[in-house]
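Proteins fold reproducibly. Next comes an illustrative record:
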Amino acid sequence: MPELPEVETIRLGLEPYVVGSRILDVAVHHPRAVRRHVAGAAAFRDQLIGQGVQAAVRRGKYLWLLLEGSRALVIHLGMSGQLLVHHGEPPPHRHLRVSLRLTDDRSVSFVDQRTFGHLLVTGLVPTSDGGPGGLGSDRSLIPEVVAHIA
């Protein structure tokens, strides 16, 4: 499982490529990757298309992309999850689970060999102490599913 320093390194590497971009298309290649998104793969896709990415944030081992409209794309890498940024379409990969096509001819692939990681779109709630929700954003909002992380 990626440890906290690796997750922060991923956030820092992802940030310059996704912040300020808009999600143009989403492909769910394996439904298990969005299993915690209660409404299913089609709703997952529909809730992301057209959204602008405002920040890449981390709290504990959770990453999220802060979206417009007080929503977030939450990412947990599980044991073997990776986020790969590509210029153009993502190349074929045996363990590709979800791909996001962004503006500026970029794409992000969620690759997970063991399929323990997951992605979901969720609403944001205020932090209990009024402080920033996570590293990468000064907003005092945090995804509902991450609110239990100290």
Notes: The helical segments are 4-18, 41-48. The chain is about 15% helix and 40% strand.
